[in-house]
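Contributing new records

If you add data, match the layout below exactly. Sequence lines come first and carry their own label; structure lines follow with theirs. Keep one chain per record. Anything else will be rejected by the validation script.
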Amino acid sequence: MDRILYTAMGGAKQSLDQQAVVSNNLANASTAGFRAQLHAMRAVPVLGDGLLATRTTVMASTPGADFTPGAIEATGRDLDVAIQGNGWLAVQGEDGSEAYTRRGDLQVDGNGVLNSAGHPVIGEGGPIVVPLGAQLSVGADGTLSAIGAGESPDALVEVGRLKLVDPGNATLLRGQDGLFRAPPNADGDATRLAADEAVRVISGALEGSNVSAVESMVSMIDGARRYEMQMKVIQSADENAQRADSLLSIQG
């Protein structure tokens, strides 16, 4: 089979993978605190029996996430918090590990557990549990206060404190669940970031996604045209092969 088929097929496959990343970003253009996933195309040498200096193939990669802050919009909701600066909110992943997110639209489930997008929010002693039916408020330092149902404002009590972290120069890694985690240590074990007292939040506001819908649409169109170009190359190679077969066939 003509080698051009392998080249075009590899390019088409990687274009589809890149489209998946762009589609995911576009789908989360309105998700609070979402960080866009980066994507890139790069040339890699062909290894194995086909190793030659002139032979390369293409590969799509996701080198990381775009940590540019999103726009902050006021909502007026007491349990909406926007994290300032480079801070992150600690939550518990489905596997029980500690993970981090910028999504601040907090909710209280039927058991009184404070969560963010279904993930329990971690406080100083683990997941935060609040009194059901209480009026909650969040301070600038992440302190969570509550007024019981039917009680006066003088009955305000502290029920927990959000664990806020600042990774500094460390690069957080995105997991399959969309949450970010600290890089593993030298032994490959998961690590936890220490709480940072300097991180502040804005109550009654949310940080939006940093995805640009316009740029994502342009990238999607570009990827679709690149895929179409690769398919035309495959079609042209097939037509050339058919013409070659007709020329070499024995005419009766």
